[in-house]
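Please, structure for the following, as tokens.
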Amino acid sequence: MSTAFRAAVAAAALAAAALLVACPHSNGGGTGPSGGSGTGTASAGPDAGVAVVPDAAVGQALLDPSGVACPVLGCVYHAGAGAYFACTSGGAGACFHYGAPCAPLDGCMYDAADGRYKTCTRPVQGACEAWGGACQPAAACMYDAADGLHHTCDAVSDGRCTRWGALCDPG
């Protein structure tokens, strides 16, 4: 081995050792492969300011199972696909990122063939295979084919918006 290579390896080893020394260290609390058990409390030692995971029995959830970790995604009409998809990120009248196909919970979907919202009696993969009568979506945020964006609808008649409002978040 060359002297330059040995020097580079030695420098890398010293840098790795310095990083290990600088990292917070465990005070022996917590549970893990070592079989130790912790108190679930913080100390003023080297771990001060580091979050402590509460003790839990095997198979017991650390978080309250009745809590909600993520918001419910909106089910949004995608004009290019002619179907509904989960909106993972949206605002200003548009969905920016789409997820899996879906159907709105109220069953009221946009029919591009006649520009009306109708009850879908047979949704399949975000599209409607059988239409029912005109409806008004539970959320007042509706798709406007004129500009391709979602607006608040201030008045609906026969499944069509007759008075558009401001842009809204479809997700």
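The radius of gyration is 28 Å. Residues 14-43 have pLDDT under 50 and may be disordered.
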